[in-house]
Design brief:
With 367 residues, the chain is of the alpha+beta class. The protein folds into two domains: 3-140, 3-Layer(aba) Sandwich (Aminopeptidase), CATH 3.40.630.30; 143-327 and 350-354, 3-Layer(aba) Sandwich (Aminopeptidase). The chain is 36% helix and 27% strand. It is built from 13 helices and 15 strands. Strands 1, 2, 3, 4, 5, 6, 9 and 15 form an eight-stranded mixed sheet that branches. Strands 8-10-11-12-13-7-14 form a seven-stranded mixed sheet. Helix 6 runs antiparallel to helix 7 and helix 6 runs antiparallel to helix 8. The protein is globular and about 65 Å long. The chain starts with a strand and ends in a 23-residue tail after the last helix.
């Protein structure tokens, strides 16, 4: 049985190497860039506290498991609570997978936080979490996608694939994709440019935070940010350039009144990835969504995808968004049934900004 300890500086090199081996299938020493990123995220984040540390599992002095933990500040029905976000859950596969994984999760659940959460749990990890007492939040585990330029998106995929055949296919189809996309947008619902009555504009992190703080949703579980925390979060998210350009935008109604906001990654000929959508009133949401789709179209995104928002499934469907369950789930644990039920019933203001999807672990080559 391994020993679970708090993650410290002495564990960084081995934890980063285990990540490469488990997640990337690369049995090589971790480069300094990846080790520095481990330090930045797990020791340098503005919520870091020794009370809720990342965890390692050691077997006879060898690091055989790692659970990254990022504390976050939340509010439940007006009172402050702490959330621990689990990320980069990796174990040595050959010998220690079951015991080490289970001990890491059980140790994490025993922390002082009121809620433990992850939004990037694969099937194997979700099984360990649920075996230790967690629940899968099904409503937040679905994703939606809205197609914009599907043929040009296929060209982008060929371009990123490399090789002689993809290059030939791309050259042969490059001239026909735009007109096909145009015809699809005219002939079929669910394609083409959305036109919102509201206007959207790029803003700074401070302006975006103000818009989020002024939102008047009634969800009992909500994130809380200080300006320093939010600026750090958005600066980290903006560094994930392989996902595309991070666009932080506020939305205003036809009368110029603030209506909401959205944050997403835009990349030409690739799917745009939504991190957060905010709204002041429920009736603002459809036009905010149209403004997002309109901006993504202008950025030449092939599609827009994001996490399901339970209270707006109808509005998303009306914009011809398709829903699917991918290979990752939102999983949560709490000894307070009211807090846990707010997630299970889809009554939480949780977005991709509050989990691990803004991190760069999986998007960087770390060469």
């Amino acid at each position: 049985m391994g020993e679970v300890r708090a993650f410290t500086e002495e564990h960084v090199r081995d934890a980063a190497g285990l990540y490469l081996k488990s997640m990337r299938g690369q049995n090589r020493p971790a480069p300094e860039s990846l080790q520095d990123y481990f330090r930045d995220i797990f020791f340098g984040n503005p919520w870091a506290t020794p009370e809720i540390p990342s965890l390692v599992c050691l077997e006879k002095g060898k690091l055989v498991g790692f659970m990254g933990v990022i504390p976050r500040s939340m509010q439940f029905r007006g009172r402050p609570i702490r959330m621990a976000v689990g990320t980069q859950f990796v174990v040595e596969r050959e010998t220690y997978r079951g015991p080490a994984a289970f001990e890491l999760v059980r140790h994490l659940f025993r922390g002082p936080q009121e809620l433990t959460f992850t939004d990037g749990s694969g099937e194997a990890a979700a099984q360990v979490w649920t075996a230790a007492g967690a629940r899968v939040a099904r409503l937040y585990s679905f994703n939606w996608i809205r197609f914009l330029h599907p043929c040009q998106g296929a060209l982008g995929f060929l371009d990123r694939s490399g090789g002689a055949l993809p290059r030939l296919l791309k050259a042969a189809s490059g001239m026909v994709a735009p007109p096909i996309d145009y015809l699809l947008s005219k002939a079929l619902p669910g394609f083409g440019r959305s036109n919102s009555r509201y206007s959207a504009r790029l803003v700074s992190a401070d302006e975006l935070l103000l818009s989020i703080q002024e939102s008047r949703g009634r969800e009992p579980l909500r994130p809380v940010y200080t300006p320093d925390q939010f600026n750090w979060l958005m600066s980290q998210a903006a560094r994930a350039t392989r996902n595309g350009q991070l666009r932080m935008m506020t939305v205003h109604s036809t009368g110029g009144e603030p209506a909401g906001s959205f944050v997403y990654y835009a990349k030409p000929h690739a799917a745009a990835y939504v991190l957060q959508i905010g709204w002041r009133r429920r009736d603002h949401f459809p036009e905010i969504l149209r403004a997002l789709l309109e901006d993504a179209w202008d950025q030449r995104a092939s599609a827009v995808k994001g996490q399901a928002i339970p209270q707006f499934l109808t509005a998303l469907s009306e914009q011809q968004c398709l829903f699917r369950q991918l290979d990752s789930s939102v999983v949560a644990y709490s000894t307070d049934p009211d807090i846990l039920n707010s997630l299970l019933l889809g009554d939480a203001a949780i977005s991709r900004l509050d989990g691990e999807c803004w991190l760069r672990f999986s998007s960087e080559p770390w060469t």
